[in-house]
Design brief:
The protein is α/β, with parallel strands linked by helices and 523 residues long. It contains 17 helices and 21 strands. Helix 14 links the parallel strand 16 and strand 17.
């Protein structure tokens, strides 16, 4: 989906306190905050950042989400925002809007998420994942703990890192946005755009309810542009813009053998082993270069020379990438790492058949199971890919069944399998915005003014974020603006945020907020 459309400008004017009036009343903007002003504002929010990191935010625990939503609601209210909790089955999302919308300016909806991944405390190298811990790397390259009070000192080292769940993903970008408005207030600058914010409460669960919540509050969330504050920056740690994300579909493939696990001495060489049958089936789906061999799987993807030029310009260090992954060579799906992200995947994310290790038995298993995930791109509809996969399996001689095969099916077919997949949600759809679109030009202009150079531009990142639900419901163009260090260990133990990235993130956001969007015509 190539998103370049605009929506009409939300014209309502709301009145709030003096802080908001200073930010949003004038058509003549004061100069954007200086680097020193944004640095000061960023440091001033470090205590708030540590405070909110101490509140657990497991996305499956409703009480956690309620506490985080309430905390962020108060933080936005202190800065003059009008807020509203959006009901979501006990896990409310948060809407915030800067009052004083001005005609002739676009309304930008900023998205971030306040929930986090679950934790296993024993895996963390600190007292608790919910006790934010300041660390520095010593001469031996190991992390050592510093007194947390040093975070609040006059000159914290930008190479220091704050460790804790959600320190980067995704509470840091929310705190950066709060700090950016503090910087605007301190400098007397006014936003060049109208601002709305939505904080998702279930992103780490795949945002299953985001589309529903947006649908219930369509008028409230009506905007012209969408900026997504999520994900890591490029590995070079250079300012980054991401114009698309892959989607994901999941399927369970089962290959059936004998009715039950059977003695391998009595029935080996007689009853086919489903694990070996599964291995041959999976092997038929990809060649030795890693390319999917399912007929038609890549046919919809067409890359022109301009797209390839953009991808070649990304400063990837593929030697270092392969070293980090511990692989000798990359698969040959694309000419480079960026190009590989433009194609759909067919990934085996898990295999199971009987037992291994101390529990291994001398049997012919009754079933083999493969869990698959298919990363999609805008050109490849997930239902189409799943249909192609189904046809490939049948072409290999398999009869596909629903559930367990019946006695009649076992008697009639030598190769039995099932392929089950869940309905693909809007939150897991692939979407992309044209790099030459107005929102792309606006953000590049902002980055050039802030940093004096072009940002790294990613045409399509490999992961999935819930842009599909928002783009589908609001019909607006989007760009992802990642602000956190790539090596932040998100979703893993010892998640961390580099202080220098936090401060630069505030600079980035103040630059975006004070960049006029020209031309803009309300329709």
């Amino acid at each position: 989906m190539n998103i370049i459309s605009r929506r009409s400008l939300h014209a309502a004017c709301l009145v709030s306190g003096a802080a908001v009036a200073m930010l949003a009343s004038s058509s003549l903007f004061a100069a954007a905050p200086t680097s020193a002003q944004t640095t000061t504002a960023a440091k001033a929010t470090f205590k708030e950042w540590a405070e909110v990191l101490a509140i657990p935010n497991d996305s499956v625990v409703a009480a956690d989400i309620q506490r985080n939503t309430a905390w962020f609601e108060q933080a936005f209210q202190r800065r003059g925002f009008r807020t509203q909790q959006l009901a979501n089955d006990g896990r409310p999302m948060l809407f915030a809007e800067l009052p004083g919308n001005q005609a002739g300016k676009p309304t930008v909806l900023f998205y971030a998420h306040l929930d986090g991944q679950a934790v296993t405390p024993s895996e963390w190298q600190q007292e608790s994942p919910w006790k934010p811990t300041l660390k520095q790397r010593n001469a031996a390259g190991q992390w050592e703990t510093l007194p947390i009070d040093q975070l609040y000192g006059a000159n914290p080292n930008p190479e220091w890192r704050l460790f804790g769940r959600a320190s980067a993903d995704d509470k840091a970008p929310i705190m950066m946005m709060l700090a950016a408005f503090d910087a605007l207030k301190a400098s007397g600058a006014a936003p060049a755009v109208n601002v709305k914010i939505i904080l998702d409460s279930e992103e780490e669960k795949g945002s299953p309810s985001l589309g529903k919540v947006i649908g219930e509050h369509q008028a409230l969330l009506k905007s012209d542009l969408l900026v997504v504050l999520d994900g890591p920056m490029h590995a070079s740690n250079l300012p980054t813009l991401v114009f698309g994300n892959r989607g994901v579909a999941q399927a369970t493939l089962k290959v059936f053998g004998p009715r039950q696990d059977s003695h391998s001495g009595h029935y080996g060489n007689y009853a086919a082993n489903p694990a070996q049958t599964m291995a041959r089936l999976l092997a038929s789906m990809k060649d030795d270069d890693g390319r999917v061999t399912v007929a038609g799987y890549y046919d919809a993807v067409k890359l022109d020379e301009e797209s390839r030029r953009i991808m070649r310009a990304v400063p990837d260090d593929e030697v270092a990438l392969r070293k980090r992954l511990g692989i000798a060579q990359a698969e040959k799906v694309g000419q480079n790492y960026q190009e590989a992200m433009q194609y759909p995947t067919l990934n085996v994310r898990g295999l199971q058949s009987a037992d291994v290790g101390a529990k291994a038995r001398t049997i012919v298993p009754g079933v083999a199971i493969a869990e698959l995930d298919l990363r999609t791109v805008p050109e490849t509809d997930p239902q189409v890919l799943l249909g192609l996969l189904k046809a490939h399996i049948e072409k290999q001689g398999f009869h596909l069944v629903k559930g367990e095969p019946t006695d009649d099916e076992r008697a009639r077919y030598g190769k039995l399998a099932s392929l089950d997949y869940a309905q693909v949600s809007a939150s897991s759809m692939a979407v992309r915005t044209d790099l030459a679109s107005p929102i792309g030009k606006w953000l590049r202009s902002s980055f050039n003014k802030t940093y004096g150079k072009e940002p790294v531009q990613i045409r399509m990142m490999g992961g999935t974020v819930p842009t599909g639900a928002m783009v589908g419901a609001l019909k607006i163009p989007f760009v992802i603006v990642p602000l956190v260090n790539a090596d932040n260990n998100q979703h893993s133990a010892n998640e961390n945020m580099r202080l220098g990235n936090y401060i630069d993130g505030v600079r980035t956001l103040t630059g975006i907020l004070t960049e006029p969007f020209e031309p803009f015509q309300a329709r």
